[in-house]
Prior knowledge:
Layout: E1 12-13, E2 19-20, H1 22-40, H2 48-63, H3 69-83, E3 89-96, E4 99-107, E5 113-115, H4 119-127, E6 131-133, E7 151-159, E8 162-171, H5 179-196
Antiparallel strand pairs: 1-2, 3-4, 3-8, 4-5, 6-7, 7-8
Methionine sulfoxide binds at residues 89, 110-111, 114, 119-122, 142-143, 145, 149, 152, 168, 170.
Amino acid sequence: MASRSAKPAKSRKRSSGKKVSAAAKKKALTKRSATKLRAAAPNTDGNKPKLYASLVAQLLSLLKGEHDFIANAANFSALLFNSLPNVNWAGFYFLQGDELVLGPFQGNPACVRLPLGKGVCGVAAQQCETIIVPNVHEFPGHIACDVASNSEIVVPLFDGERLLGVLDLDSPTIGRFDDQDAEGLNELVTVFVAHEEGLGV
Ligand code: SME
C-alpha cells in the first residue's frame, strides 16, 4: 500500500517558478492516463475482424520472448479488457480436477471455484465448446459474479486434446457477443496456447 504523507497536500513550487495545484496535477495525470488508454485501443471503427486481427498482432508482441504462463495470461486478459468495447470482466479459469479455478483477470473480484458442468464456464468446459449467452439471466444455472454482467462468452482452451480451462468475457450489454467475437477470441486463445505449448501448463 502506498505510504501516506503526514502533511496535507499543498501546492508546490517547481524550478520553473510556476505553482501547480494538487487539483491541476491530478487533472493532468488523469488526462495522461486516459490518452495512454485510448492510444492502446486500436481504432478499427467497429469492424470486429479488423479489431481481432489487431489484437492478434498485439498479443504476439506481448508474448514475444516471455514464457511465464501467469504473466502472459495476465497481460492477455488486460489486453482484452482494455481493447474490447463494453466488457466489464475478462479473464481465465483453469481446470484443476473437476473444477475451474480463477486465474488472471481484469474486472471486479470473481467467484474462485466453478464446478464442471455448472454455469456458463462449467458447461463450456464440460462440452468443450464456445458458448455465447446473449442474456445471462436466461441461462439455466448461470453463476452471477458481477451484477453488472448481462451477456457472456466463454471459450475453452486446449493444449492438443487436453482441456486447460476457459477464457471468460462478460458485458453489461445484452447480446454483446456474436460469432465474430467467437471466431476472434478462438484465434487469440489458439495463438496464446501455441506460445505456451511445451511449458507443461
Ligand atoms: N458467469 C460465469 C461465472 C464467472 S464470472 O462471470 C467471472 C458462469 O456462469 O460460469
